[in-house]
Design a protein that fits this description.
Chain lengths: ~260, ~425
């Protein structure tokens, strides 16, 4: 089974010291102080891809849109068991929305002849949660989102469990080729082994610029997007909101008092 | 030169979450002696696939050595060669530093035991042993099936390590070992023991130079170990005594299977212990600084964050200076090792500085956090106790200084003795 897994590099928001500041353009955030990691849901997608490969054979190709810095998350996925990678990198790709992003991914995936495309169900930075679905539409394959379990029924069919509200699992059968947007928590992402890391440095990361995608400039970036992001802003503190300040001991005491006063506990 | 390669950056990225989640959650149990450190080593191996990575190269090394032995040529093996993956390929020494650093951010005890198991015990067998000995004793060590320890220090031979009194008396085709070792990392639970003993043929002049490493297995008659010692720090790493009471061994347990000077070998192994210290100090300092900055920003006194006070700024800035220096020393040392330009005086200077810096940074981190810093719940309390060992183990800070002075004087043609005065 040949699998493509799409990965995105995002700021490490698990670091409590990461503060988000809007940059001078108003359309981006200052990334100079960030450390970057693989998007959480994509990490589970990588694990699912490798588990399927280990059980059923085939190859796993990692696809990413990003600059050279994104090689880190690509190499980590290769170290865990990916076989090859494609990185889409061109200045014209900046400000691509969901549709333009999916179009780019399609250009890299369409000729790979894969049976299954995996993405994370949502990116932790922009939170769109729509790239996988848009990509399935463009590839003209069926899709399932928020997938937590994947079982191979036969050469052509998968049985997937989608996570619904309250942890309810909805079981579906889906024909391959198809796209699954993977939810977090369905497996346990492995740590890359030292041997895997060493081997990853020898694996090829094919870089595709605009020309290599076969797309025109007006199909990518802002001009190829149907939604244009215009500005970031920090929400203003509303009248009804009370921001509690202080160290953890003070803030928790204040919060407890408020909850008591309002009779909520 | 001052940046990690992409591969090492990935290794650091893989190690950090493991250490902060898996290892950190087990530190208390490890420190309390409820979790054997070898169990953790096995877990670490399972996650990062160290034994499976080394198995192939180790087999090749044994085959190569065996072939050379048949030709009458002795060749030495090394961990570098194993990690290099192919015969003759050395690894970047920075790899070992990054591993020791990342482990030491969370548990210097684990790093210490891990280092004694692979770096001291495993490496000595590879370097000194024959192909048969590597197969019998090093294979289970590198497969994490048996835990190793390395014993040189004795109750009356600490800094003066080569004044050891453990003897190996030849008796037919055997040796009879008597004596004791102390402060030996991993000894209480080790399965494989490297112990240094002085051949005693009753000729004081020749015997003095004949210090050899023997390899012993748990369960050997006459070999016993003491209980884990109660230490100020490094409590997660078992330390203890080894007692040898008429232990009879054959020539096949003398590493190398023939009598040739082992003193240089012990010195080389001591050097590797010395080289690990700056990397461990780096991890301790980096973590103490991280925790201190975080605390200084969160904690408020007199209506202000601690970090607003200049006396606190002084502390974190000085910690950073130490971090910068120790990090640079580690990079420098890795470079020197790669280029084959390492020197005793530089290694001693690095260990002296880095270990003292780790203790100072740890103490300052505690001071910055006040009462909270003194509490066990704050990680800096344990790290500071652990840091103190770096000034003692693998050669005390004082011995490092003496070595440096000795080297400086030697450049001018004056040979000094570590015991003071001129070398005789």
């Amino acid at each position: 089974m040949n699998i493509v897994v799409c990965v995105k590099q995002v700021p490490d928001t698990s670091d409590p010291d990461t503060e988000v500041h809007i940059d001078g353009t108003g359309r981006g955030v200052d990334q100079s102080k960030f450390s970057f990691v693989i998007n959480d849901a994509d990490n589970y997608a990588v694990e699912e891809a490798i588990l399927l490969k280990e059980k059923h054979g085939g190859e796993v190709t990692v696809v990413n849109i990003g600059g050279e810095a994104a090689n880190q998350v690509i190499r980590m996925a290769l170290a865990k068991g990916g076989d090859g990678a494609v990185r889409l990198d061109d200045e014209s790709f900046v400000y691509s929305d969901v549709v333009a992003t999916a179009r780019l991914l399609k250009s890299a995936i369409k000729d790979l002849g894969c049976d299954l495309v995996l993405t994370g169900c949502m990116a932790s930075d922009d939170g769109y949660g729509a790239v996988g679905i848009a990509l399935a539409q463009m590839l003209e394959v069926p899709h399932a989102a928020y997938v937590k379990t994947v079982e191979v029924v036969d050469d052509k069919k998968l049985k997937v469990g989608r996570e619904l509200e309250g942890g309810l699992l909805e079981m579906n059968e889906i024909e391959m080729p198809c796209l699954l947007a993977i939810q977090t928590g369905g497996n346990e992402p492995r740590y890359a082994s030292f041997k895997g890391i060493r081997e990853a440095s020898k694996k090829e990361i094919k870089v595709m610029d605009l020309a290599a995608t076969g797309l025109s400039a007006d199909e990518v970036g802002e001009s190829g997007s149907v939604a244009v992001m215009t500005q970031y802003s920090v929400p203003e503190v509303g009248d009804l909101a009370e921001m509690i300040e202080g160290d953890p001991a003070e803030t928790s005491a204040k919060l407890a008092n408020i909850l008591k006063e309002k009779g909520l506990v | 030169m001052f940046e990690l390669s992409e591969q090492l950056e990935l290794i650091q990225q893989a190690l950090r979450p493991y250490c902060e989640k898996e290892l950190q959650s087990k530190v208390d149990a490890l420190e309390e002696g409820e979790l054997p450190v070898f169990e953790l080593m096995k877990d670490f191996d399972g996650v990062f696939g160290i034994s499976s990575m080394l198995a192939g190269p180790l087999k090749k090394m044994i085959e190569r050595k065996r072939k050379k032995e048949e030709e009458g040529v002795e060749e030495r093996g090394s961990i570098d060669e194993l990690l290099g993956g192919e015969v003759g390929t050395a690894i970047d020494p920075m790899l070992l530093f990054v591993v020791a650093k990342e482990l030491s951010r969370v548990s210097p005890s684990f790093a210490l035991s891990f280092g004694a198991h692979l770096g001291l015990c495993g490496q000595t067998i590879l370097s000194k042993g024959t192909s048969d000995q590597i197969e019998k004793y090093a294979l289970p060590i590198f497969a994490f099936e048996k835990m190793g320890c390395w014993g040189l220090t004795e109750p009356e031979a600490g800094s003066d390590a080569f004044a050891l009194t453990t003897t190996a008396v030849p008796d037919g085709d055997q040796y009879v070992l008597n004596g004791s070792k102390t402060f030996i990392t991993n000894a209480p639970y080790a399965d494989i023991f490297i112990v240094y003993a002085k051949i005693d043929r009753g000729d004081a002049k020749t015997d003095k130079r004949m210090i050899y490493p023997f390899v012993l297995e748990r369960g050997t008659q006459g070999l016993s170990v003491g209980k884990p010692m109660h230490k100020m720090g490094m409590r997660g790493s078992p330390t203890g005594e080894i007692f040898l009471d008429d232990v009879r061994v054959g020539l096949d347990q003398l590493l190398g299977k023939k009598e040739k000077t082992g003193r240089a070998q012990a010195k080389e192994t001591l050097a590797s212990e010395r080289e690990e210290a700056p990397a461990m100090a780096w991890g301790i300092i980096e973590r103490c600084l991280d925790e201190s900055v975080k605390y200084a920003i969160e904690r408020k006194q007199f209506g202000r964050r601690l970090v607003e006070f200049q006396l606190i700024q002084d502390k974190i800035a000085r910690m950073y200076v130490h971090l910068e220096n120790v990090r640079n020393l580690a990079y420098k040392q890795a470079w020197a090792m790669r280029e084959g330009r390492g020197s005793l005086r530089d290694a001693c200077a690095a260990k002296f500085y880095a270990s003292a810096a780790a203790v100072e940074v740890g103490m300052e981190a505690i001071q910055l956090m006040g009462g909270y810093g003194y509490m066990h719940e704050q990680h800096v309390e344990m790290l500071t106790r652990d840091a103190k060992l770096l000034m003692i183990g693998g050669g005390t800070s004082e011995i490092q200084l003496l070595n440096i002075a000795k080297e400086l004087a030697r450049d001018k043609g004056v040979k000094l003795s570590l015991a003071g005065g001129l070398q005789v």
